[in-house]
Structure formats: structure tokens, C-alpha cells
Amino acid sequence: MxxxxxxGIGSIQQKDSFEMLDEALILMEKATHKAIKDTxxxxxxxxxDQIQIPKGYWKYRDPGKWIANxxxxxxxxTSVTKIGVLxxxxxxxxxxxxxxxxxxxSLIVGGEARYKKILALKEKKDFIETELNTNPDxxxxxxxxxxxxxxxxxxxxxxxxxxxxxxxxxxxxxxxSIQKHKKKIGEMYEAFSKIAEANPDGWLDKKISSxxxxxxxxxxxxxxxxxxxxxxxxWNVNQASAMIICNEDVADHLGIPIDKRVYPLASSETNHxxxxxQRPSLGRSLGLNLAVKFIKDxxxxxxxxxxxxxxxxxxxxxxxxxxxxxxxxxxxxKTVTGGxxxxxxPLNNYVIHSTVKVLNEIRDNHSKxxxxxxxxxxMTKQSLALWAKKPLIxxxxxxxxxxxxxxxxxxxMSKKIEGKATILGYTFFHDDNNNLKAVIYSEDSQKKxxxxxxxxxxxxxxxxxxEWVGKKISFKGKYLVS
Length: 482
Known about the structure:
Layout (H helix, E strand, L loop, with lengths): L3 E10 L10 H15 L9 E7 L8 H8 L6 E5 L6 H12 L5 E9 H10 L14 E3 L8 H7 L3 H15 L4 H21 L11 H5 L7 E3 L2 E2 L9 E10 H6 L9 E8 L15 H17 L5 E3 L5 H11 L23 H15 L5 E7 L4 E8 L7 E4 L1 H7 L10 E13 L5 E9 L4 E6 L2 H7 L8 E5 L2 E2 L2
Parallel strand pairs: 2-3, 2-4, 3-5, 9-13, 10-11
Antiparallel strand pairs: 1-8, 4-8, 6-7, 9-12, 11-12, 14-15, 14-17, 15-16, 17-18
């Protein structure tokens, strides 16, 4: 086996006028330049056999080939990984290919330029992307859809509503009142904002109080109860990050300094896909627990003690589910970036950014052992990865999907037209007509699932003040009637 090691990292962030901002393609190339330079030996380009890029909002077919041609990377096969695939999977597959001797080095890079797009809209300017119409060598995509039609009909494709419903189920299971729960996640995110403020790669440049996070306002509008804007990942950034992973023999041959090297120790992932409404338990994940157990067992068997955490933070429920599964205390710091609301959460490549940040922290403090987590979909898939300054064990990775599939099956959907049901989770938000609408996940008398809605103002008011998870209700068609 070959030993995979990260030898080059690079991140870039731009906050400037429209004319001075780059499109995503240029951002990714600049991050690649930084990673190549960071290795201290530009000859690393002769060994890069693979370029992996997670798909973003951009329209380029194959940015990897464009970057390769401009940077004298001659032998690399390119891939674009579509939304719905864990970002950690790119790192896992590169490390496994290196360990198996299939490739010598891999460049993984991702970036977004939505901030430039937003300024274009505000300033009524044209945003023009470079046209790249040649396909990559490989497209990687998920096997199944992330939600079913009944969910899409009421929640659309935006993630916030799905996560908000999971949050409500988590709140009820932990017997927190709505106010105590709002205070809890507000204080957690205030702490995140302080970390982002001190992070030179973070998008936010000031801390935000828990009250300002908790309370909906003109600058912090409701997105989907209990989430306001500041609870949600921030996509509108100009950011890119890159990392170069190679086998240790290449690093030795090129004379890469020891202080540049950081090693992947172990990784796990679950790709067990169940639509949110059909999960046996909202706010819990068997696949996540299996993936965590694998990492915990590795740590226990090898006396490895993680002390640096970056928990995926698209929405507060993701942080809480990872934290609970890992057994972390409320006092333990759960991010080095400051989280996706404040450090910036570019679509489909944040794990590259967070991993680069963790690797940099490990370089600065060799006693640190980092644990980075990731999510895809509606808290559908999860991943974990352990990193250290030394190769404490041979790299090992496991996909626990089959184990999860054997022990967790989707709950069938109800065909009842009317009847009684129990609320499992809910949220409310402003619909396309700016009217408040509640979406309720429920279980009928036959223990089958149903998506319900309500526009009743009294019900909506009550849902924002007292807990409705667990309530027995009546429905007719798709409406909660009492």
C-alpha cells in the first residue's frame, strides 16, 4: 500500500467591486496556484493523474481540463461530481486510489462566485462566464433523488424547509420549549460568529449576538421556522479552495518539507438514501451512527483522540446531530471556520474549504488531530474524516451504506384521504404569494406517512409559540383541519 498525504493547500476569498471579482473558474485556478506553490515544488504537476471538482452553480462542463491545460498538468483524468454526492467522497476516492497505487497524485478543487452574480443583479450588470463545452472524463452523480414528489410539491427543492422540520422533531424529542430551543441554537451560532470573525478566510467580519440571530428582522428574515437567515448557510460568496494529495514516495522524491505534510487517517461515509418524510426517526440517522461508530472504534483501537472539530453546519440541526452522535459536550468547540452561515458555505464544496482550514490548523499545531464532517442532501448522507500530522495508522475508509440499508427501511406513504394523524415535525414560511404556510410531516393511524399543509392563521400563530410535534390532528385531503 502507498501512504496518501496532503502536501499542498490553497484558499482564496474575494470581497470587492463587481469589476474586481473573478468568476468561479478563475477562483478555482487561483486556489490551484496557491496549492501548487504551497507544496514548494512546482514539479508536482507532473504527478497529478486526477483532477476532481464538485459541481457548483456555474455552467462549465469541465473546468478541470481547462485548469490542467493552463498549468501544464498533462496526464490528469478529470471528473465533475454532481450535487447529491458527499464532498468527502472525492477525498476518500483520491486517498484510496493513491493507497491502491492507481494514481500518484490528485488535485481536488472547488469554488463559487455567487457574490459576483448577486452584485451583477443589484447593479444591473452582465455576468458572463467562460464557456467550457467539453465534457469531463467522468461525471459522478447520486443514484437516487433526495426527496419524493409529495415533499417537493409543498417544500420545493430548497433545503431549509426540510432541515427546519428535522429541527422541530429534534426539539420535541429533547423536550425543549420553543423559546429555550431558539435560545440554545442562537447561543451556539453566536459562538460560531465569533470564530468566523477571527478567521481570515471567513466571510463575516463581525460577531453577531444570539438575540440578533434568534429574532426575525428586516436584515434577518424568517426563512423557515425556526430558522432565520442567520441560521442558514451563506451561498452568496466568492470563495475557492484546493488541495493536492499524493503518495508519500512522490512527496519524498520531490523533497516536500515535512512541515507541509498532513495525513488522512480514516474516513467513513453513509450513502443510505431515505426521503426525509419516510425516515423512521426524524432528527436521527442510523447511517450517521454507524459511520461515527467506525471512526470511534478506529480511535479507541489506536489511542487516537480528536481535539479539533469542524462539524458540517448548513443548518443548526446538522451540528446537533453530529455532536450528539459523537458524544461532544456543549462546551466543546465545534468549528474552526466559524460555520457556513458566517464563514461562508459555497454550494457543494464547503468540505474542501473546511478541510483545508483544519489541515492548516494541524500544520500550525502538530498535537492537533482533526475531525471533519460532511453532509449531502437533506441530512441524507453523512461523512467523517480524521486527519493528523503523522501517519498514525494506515489510511482506512469504510462506506456503511449496506449496513444501514439492512437495518433501516423507508416508512410507506399514506393513501388515506382523511382521518387522524400524529404530527412528527413541522415548519412554516412565506409562500410565493408572501402568505404564511405550514408544512407538516405526520403519521396516520396505520403508521404511514403523510405531508399536510395549513394556511390557518390561528394554527400558524400557535405553531410559533407552542410545540405541535406530537399533537393528534385531523386531516382531509392534504389539509390539517383540526
